[in-house]
Write a structure and sequence with these properties.
This protein has 4 helices and 12 strands. The protein is mainly β. The protein has a 6-stranded antiparallel barrel with strand order 1-2-5-4-3-6. β3 and β4 form a beta hairpin. The protein is elongated, with a radius of gyration of 19 Å. The C terminus is likely disordered.
């Protein structure tokens, strides 16, 4: 099974390094020196990672055969794709691969339907579920244990306990128990304070 593990960003310096947007919880395994990755568009690859280092919180990679800024810029926005055994599971019990979480139904603890996970965004501080609502709108849910209280792969659902205002700017209907204390500001309020560490 093929999984997108990173997207190449802008060139860094003049010696062929590029920034990458990491889309895997195991960059040391998927994006280490010597890894050979397929690409999208396919004509650009396969690419073999020559070196990797972290600079100012971002992962920088250099690929075999790419020696200057021009070559690095030509790779911008290319997706890096790894071949992964579909039966392979992360080492930690409470970790998941992106493909396990994609398309899960998201519901609140009270059973209210929120939507379906269409993307997982890996930020430096935390991971986010991008959830498509039934009306076609999107909501971002931090993947932290205070909010995502259960992942049930058998039932194909993620159960959340959202703070007021996270999933609905009309906070008074988000949850009856939060109705009186609901803030007036829009979606996403309280995200940062609620999101400390991923489980």
């Amino acid at each position: 099974m093929q999984l997108v593990v990173a997207r190449i960003g802008r060139a860094h310096g003049i010696k062929g390094e590029v920034t990458v947007e990491v889309r895997t919880d195991e960059p040391e395994l998927r994006l280490g020196p010597g890894a050979v990755l397929a690409t999208e568009p396919a004509a650009i690859g396969p690419l073999t990672i020559e070196t990797g280092r972290v600079h100012s919180g971002r992962l920088l990679l250099r690929f075999e055969g790419v020696r200057d800024r021009t070559g690095a810029e030509a790779l911008r926005n290319t997706l890096l794709i790894a071949e992964v055994d579909p039966e392979e599971l992360p080492e930690e019990e409470d970790e998941y691969y992106d493909h396990q979480l994609m398309d899960l139904d998201v519901v609140t603890k009270d059973g209210e339907e929120v939507g379906r996970i269409t993307e997982i965004s890996h930020l430096p501080s935390q991971d986010l579920f991008i959830v498509e609502r039934p009306d076609g709108s999107e909501v971002m849910i931090p993947f932290v244990e205070e909010i995502v209280v259960e992942i049930d792969l058998e039932e194909q659902k993620a159960v959340i306990d959202p703070p007021p205002g996270l999933i609905d700017d009309r906070a008074e209907i988000a949850s009856t128990r939060d109705a009186e204390a609901a803030p007036e500001n829009g979606p996403g309020s309280g995200n940062e304070s609620a999101a400390e560490d991923k489980a």
